[in-house]
Amino acid sequence: MGNQKLYKGSLQTIILQLLASNEKMYGYEITQKVKELTKGELNITEGALYPALHKLEADGLLDVEVANVGNRLRKYYKLTENGSKETANKVSEMQEFLRTMQHLVNPKFSLE
Amino acid sequence: MKLTQTHIENLYEFTRKHFVYHYDVQTELVDHLANDIEEIWLENPHLSFEDARDKSFKKFGIFGFMDVIEAKQKQMNKRYWNIQLRFVKEWFTMPKLLTTILIFFGIYSLLQIKYSEFYIIGALLIAVLFEMMYLYKDRKAQKQKAEKKEKIFLLEEIIGQTKGGVVSIGFVNIFNSVRFTKIEFSSLESHWLILIAFCTTVLIILFYVTSYVIPSKSKELLQETYPEYKMVKNV
């Protein structure tokens, strides 16, 4: 498992990007999907995921939907119109960040 | 293996024991724990429900559900603030704007009367007494709900609490500042009177909105906020 601290600042971008490609997801599904996509490298903790989801909801980037699944209720998150715009911004910010980091840590073998 | 209804009820009780008192927050956590327990059982089918539940809970870290509760509280406070703004704004557009102007001029004229501060203290005292009465009734109803273990939503509680909080703190503060500064309003220059009258008007509207308008519309507001509200309250 990599250094989780390095991923911490990117949690919101990860959530938004996942929702952009999956329409709607519930909390547990997000943690499992991240684990699957990163082959266990990134493990989003429960204590970090829900506060991040609630913050994004408060900022008007996410909308919620509730469905009855068998014997319990499930809360799904999906992007609002603003959320979709913000995803694009955050992803390009992230790419810019990755390029900068690449220059810094590996100046000889730049991607460009 | 899938969780039964009894397991789900046990999980609701478990979240309550870990200081999650609101149904909306509980529901999300219960679904999360339930999914995780079912996943744990796939790997280790012989584990008891309680052990699997505790194993899942440990993943929330040493603070348990605290971070989740805190974030939810912040989100709901923000939502409540936006609701307040929405209703207060109504008083600055027609037709309610006329009432606002009337209140403003009423206060402005009152301030120019000699010894107006005593009238203000008197009016505030009466208002505080009425508020205390309402507050007492409200708290009693809330307590009964909690005792009956009724499903209380976070926004529902914020609506009730803010009603008591804003009104009592606001009134007591105004009461004290009028009482102790010993300002004779009638001797102040008119631009000060306009400012005081404007601030008081906004405060009165805010009191009215948080104490009467929002509580009277709480059902609609809760339905708008929680998609599950209709499902669980059967309204």
Task: Please write out the topology.
The complex is a heterodimer of chains A (112) and B (235).
Chain A: H1 4-8, H2 11-22, E1 24-26, H3 27-37, H4 46-58, E2 62-69, E3 72-79, H5 81-105
Antiparallel strand pairs in A: 1-3, 2-3
Helix pairs in contact in A: 2-5
Chain B: H1 5-17, H2 23-43, H3 49-58, H4 66-90, H5 96-112, H6 116-147, H7 154-181, H8 190-216, H9 218-225, H10 229-233
Q: What is the assigned CATH homologous superfamily of chain A?
A: Winged helix-like DNA-binding domain superfamily/Winged helix DNA-binding domain
* Count of discrete structural domains of chain B: 2
Largest beta-sheet characterization of chain A: 3 strands, antiparallel
**CA-CA gap between termini of chain A:** 29 Å
Question: How large is the count of helical segments of chain A?
Answer: 5
Give a verbal description of the structure.
The complex is a heterodimer of chains A (112) and B (235). Chain A is of the alpha+beta class. Chain A has one domain: Arc Repressor Mutant, subunit A (Orthogonal Bundle), CATH 1.10.10.10. Chain A contains 5 helices and 3 strands. Helices cover 79% and strands 0% of the residues of chain B. Chain B is mainly alpha-helical. Chain B folds into 2 domains: 60 residues; 151 residues. At the A-B interface, helix 3, helix 4, strand 2 and strand 3 of A face helix 2 and helix 4 of B.
Brief write-up:
The complex is a heterodimer of chains A (112) and B (235). With 112 residues, chain A is an alpha+beta fold.
What are the salient characteristics of this protein?
heterodimer; A: 112 residues; alpha+beta; Arc Repressor Mutant, subunit A; 3-stranded antiparallel sheet; 5 helices; 3 strands; B: 235 residues; mainly alpha; 2 domains
